[in-house]
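go over this record:
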Amino acid sequence: MSNIVAIVGRPNVGKSTFFNRLIKRREAIVDAVSGVTRDRHYGKSDWNGVEFSLIDTGGYVKGSDDVFEAEIDKQVELAIDEADAIIFMVDVESGVTGMDEDVATLLRKVKKPVFLVVNKVDNAKRAEDAVEFYSLGLGDYFTIASINGSGTGDLLDALVEALPEKEHVEEDELPRFAVVGRPNAGKSSFINVLIGEDRYIVTDIAGTTRDSIDTKYNRFGFEFNLVDTAGIRRKSKVKDDLEFYSVMRSVRAIEHCDVCLLVMDATRGFDGQVQNIFWLAERNRKGIVILVNKWDLVEKDNKSTNQYEKIIRKEIEPFTDVPIVFISVLNKQRIFKAIETAVEVYNNRTKKIKTSVLNEVLLPIIEHNPPPAYKGKFVKIKYIMQLPTPQPQFAFFCNLPQYVREPYKRFLENKLREHFDFKGVPVSVYMRKK
């Protein structure tokens, strides 16, 4: 499970440019996910084999009358509270400002690694000017130019070295299901229905993060660890910003699970907040089941379910092979179906297909539908194998992997899904040189 790194600072110092550079630096990086308020993004990055989640917070402006700024300030403080390390970015062009001093005052109280980063340092004169940032009382600083990447290597070397090692937890072989979603969607009620009446609980297991608790669940013939993201923190913390904190909790829980049960409120729809959490799970290559809760409150006819499904699948294109279960926690409708579906998705995610079967099924299809010629070059796919990874990843060995375009990779993914059932699971297709 990866650490979380928060990038903080006042507006217009180049945080987003730096963030974008980091998430695109390596092939394995997952694209950014837009946040729920302006100027915030979530992504994954890695450096020298060390993965970490990255949060680009909004600009911190203490005492602003702007209602957006007030909310962003709360969220910056929450990000600092949740992060394992903080990058504090300042701007050499404007020098030390009052807002920089406000952020520094906040960070001097933090007992976590804090990296003071002076941005826009692209010549020797500006490197000399950066000396004044010692006055912030945060010790040594790093000089970078986020627009061209200068200096980021040294910073990232120091960052990954300072990230705390995650406590090793003895892994059992039970699947982990995380219940995630926006506030008030019914996560707590769903969990209470699962474990609240018949006490088949074996034990509560402390998770590898500060807040997550794994509840070992054994009921109806199913056994798994339930990662609860509902009601994790005391209410005085949650009230700071429910929307932002729900995403923060989801980041932690998603990384610590095999399958995400994404609970949404049918009366609110598949809105931006729910979509953010969905794409966080997809980009972390987790299994996903969408649970449409409060279905009893929706006025419906015999076409309502199909119409609602179509709306959701339109929003999650191109990853539409995801089970959607319509439930009512209040009336205890289709709760068993939700768990049954989650177990099926877990089995799909851990499925291993023999190389001989893969080649027997897919090579004839590829022969009849070969990759389109590109720049006069013809690609010949020789054989296929599944990679030894926790989630489904497949290598297609061919003569010219660089000439296989994304539409053809999607064609191959669709054929894999069609013949081997990976419903609810992201599938990765890689072209490799034979």
Observations:
- The longest strand covers residues 41-47.
- The radius of gyration is 24 Å.
